Amino acid sequence: MTSFPTFPSLRRRAVLGWAASATLAPAALQAQTKLPRLVTVGGAITECVYALGAEAQLVGTDTTSLYPLAAQNTPKVGYMRTLSAEGLLALKPDAVIGTTEAVPPVVMDQLRSAGVKVELIESDHSWAEVQRKLLAVGRGSGREAQARALQTKLDADWAATQQLVAQFKGRKPKVLFILSHTAAVQVAGEKTAADAMLRFIGAQNVMAGFNGYRAMTAEAMAAAAPDLILTTTQGIEAQGGIDKFWSRPELTLTPAFKTKALVQLDALELLGFGPRMPGTVRALHQRIVLA
Questions:
Q1: Are 111 and 90 in contact (CB under 8 A)?
Q2: Phi, psi dihedral angles at 75 (to 5 degrees)
Q3: In terms of DSSP H, where are the helices of the chain?
Q4: Shortest CA distance to 291 belongs to which of 258, 263, 255, 264?
């Protein structure tokens, strides 16, 4: 005699079937959701991608994207100022995020014509620049909520750092920033990332009075009389090491030379204006101003 399931057993099966469907639904929905493929142009913008946990969406970065270490293993699209539309389009990105000061406008126009979403962040060497970068990556990666949450945390860290700097009432050290990545050694005036960082840490830029970068000369060094030299780790390496760096005759005319007062830091961390900036400013304030 054939037996049929009772009503309670049918109900149990229905409940179990619904539960299984509910369990599988998020996974199935996630599988159907296509996360945007990103190309980032600018080391600090790439840092933001990693800070938001969106690194799996990176299909390409520029050669300045060196932090974190994993970023060095991403496909490279070249230097930020010499990009080609063909190379970028070959990676099939959904979005390209860069800065207005570095990315060739004609290349970006070609990308837009091909249907790629392009977002360029204005570089004005401010905390707002860091905010814009993070929120742009949040939009481009489809992680706006995470970006807002991280921004709130970073804003609090930045406010605390600036309060710490403001508490110092002593003499501001006279600091000279030297850019020496090539044989043409330059010093930083106003409206540069280096000048902004010196102001943020509570130091005095001895080259204030002109905008941009200029060649380092003996006359300028003698007149500026910096207490300390700030430069990049890459610049020291390009000059052949610390001893070779100090052997430049222009530097012998400065008070900094007498004590070999030198602070070096990775270029991206120092000048990139990325999510590490609050910690970088705090550390430099302690090393340079409070030392």
A1: no
A2: -60, 135
A3: 7-32, 43-51, 85-89, 105-113, 127-141, 144-166, 193-201, 218-224, 233-238, 242-246, 255-259, 267-271, 277-284
A4: 263
* Residue recorded with tokens 């807002």: 148
Helix (H), strand (E) at residue 119? strand 117-121
Q: Give 33-83 pLDDT, tens digit per residue.
A: 689 999 999 999 999 999 999 999 999 999 999 999 999 999 999 999 999
Confidence at 29, pLDDT banded by 50, 70, 90:
very low
What residue has token string 């804003």? 155
Task: Identify residue 148 by its one-letter amino acid code.
Answer: R
Which of 46, 48, 112 is closest to 80 using CA atoms? 46
What global pTM score does this model have?
0.86
Specify whether the CB–CB gap between 240 and 180 falls below 8 A.
Answer: no
Phi, psi of 37 (to 5 degrees): -85, 125
Beta bridge mates, 231: 178, 264
Amino acid at 186: Q
* Rounded distance between C-alpha atoms, residue 87 and residue 149, angstroms: 34
| Alpha carbons 64 and 76: distance in angstroms, whole number | 9
> How many helical (H) and strand (E) elements, i.e. helices and strands, does the chain have?
13, 10
Contacts of 260 by beta carbon, 8 Å cutoff, 6+ apart: 246
